[in-house]
Amino acid sequence: MRKNPDYSLTAPDDVKALVRSAPWATMVSNTEAGLVVSHYPFLLEEDAEGITIVSHVGRPDERLHELGQHEMVVVFYGPSGYISPGWYDLATGVPTWDFVTVHAYGVPEILSDDENLRVLDRLVDHFEDPLPNPFRMRGTLENAAYAERIVHGTVGFRMRVTRFEGKNKMSQDKSPEVVDRIVAALRAPGPYSNAGLADTIDASRPSEPVE
Fold this sequence. Notes:
The chain has 211 residues and is an alpha+beta fold. It has one domain (5-83, 92-173): Pnp Oxidase, Chain A (Roll). The chain has helices at residues 12-21, 61-64, 113-128, 141-150, 176-187, 195-203, and strands at 24-31, 34-41, 43-44, 52-58, 72-83, 96-106, 109-110, 154-160, 163-169. The strands form two sheets. The chain has a five-stranded antiparallel sheet with strand order 2-1-5-6-9. Strands 3-4-8-7 form a four-stranded antiparallel sheet, sandwiched between helices. The chain is globular and about 65 Å long.
């Protein structure tokens, strides 16, 4: 990503917050056969030192990505959306796009089948817990046996993030009055209504306007 100090996301806690809120991510590996891109959900290992993420891929994606052989980048995306200059109420302006994203780099470590099954359990529990009647992957003997059979069709991995690049571009270069109008427009009904982006812009307001 192009460096821009005004929008840099540099705090590990902010990276973790993005992973928690937007777990569906893009994996990119530069292999001998060329670039390989896949999409999978990720979870943080909350008790790990630094930033460590876990996921799994369906076979044979682990061979296509050459997992464990070299560095991989995982891209996480938060709220984003089009920002119209018509919302600024200024004499001049150009359109832009507000967004938050993190590129996380590291070398994946392949998990054993037992540990992969535990990660799959965590993934299922993570997404099922908000439901009134959450499904459990090993909630019954029958389903536990099924899960233990299908786990062999997946490969789990852990990736300690050794470096990351993040950007949180949320109209920080605009005056507080213009940001107010942008947030109001995003909250209003219309083709670009985006309450999640409005909330993130609100939370990203600098203590002092960026000149």
